[in-house]
Amino acid sequence: MVVIFDAELWIWDARRADTWTFVSLPTEASEEIRDLAGGPRRGFGSLRVRVTVGGSTWKTSIFPDSAHGSYVLPIKRAVRTAEALDAGDIATVTLELIDL
Q1: What pTM did the predictor assign?
Q2: In terms of Cα–Cα distance, which of 76, 79, 49, 75 is closest to 62?
Q3: CA distance 20 to 52
Q4: Could you read off the pLDDT of 14-26 as tens digits, one per residue?
Q5: In which domain, by residue range, is 31 found?
Q6: CATH code at 13?
Q7: Matching InterPro entries, A to Z (predicted)?
Q8: Contact 7, 24 (CB under 8 A)
Q9: What is the mean pLDDT of residues 22-51?
Q10: Are 6 and 90 in contact (CB under 8 A)?
Q11: What angle do CA 37, 74, 35 make, to 5 degrees?
Q12: CA-derived radius of gyration, the chain
């Protein structure tokens, strides 16, 4: 499954000092992913993904966010630097589920 979406980068409040930065997947895509993933998952309910933002592609995991009913995707510092992105910016994300 491949999902392409635009999302605003945001900083996780609990780790604001560390500037852990994420985007939230659209609710509809998150529901489809939950249906595909089925039963128990890896730690914290994570799912492995391949992600492209701008010219940067990397493998990481998405994590369920029960407060918003969606998954969240961490955007690592190296990608934010390479793509000149900061919290509040909008990024176009291409996300592919792997290892399902």
Answers
A1: 0.87
A2: 49
A3: 18
A4: 655 567 899 999 9
A5: 2-97
A6: 2.40.30.100
A7: AF2212/PG0164-like_sf, DUF1905
A8: yes
A9: 87
A10: yes
A11: 15
A12: 13
How confident is the model over 37-48, as a mean pLDDT? 74
Distances from the Cα of 18 to the Cα of 13, 39, 57, 89, angstroms: 10, 32, 23, 18
Short-list 56, 62, 58, 50, CA closest to 24: 62
pLDDT at 100 > cutoff 80: no
Mean pLDDT of the 2-24 span: 86
User: pLDDT tens digit string along 58-71?
Assistant: 999 999 998 888 99
What single letter denotes the amino acid at residue 25?
L
Amino acid identity, residue 22? F
For residue 41, give both structure tokens. 């998952």
In single-letter form, the type of residue at position 84 comes to A
Total residues belonging to the chain: 100
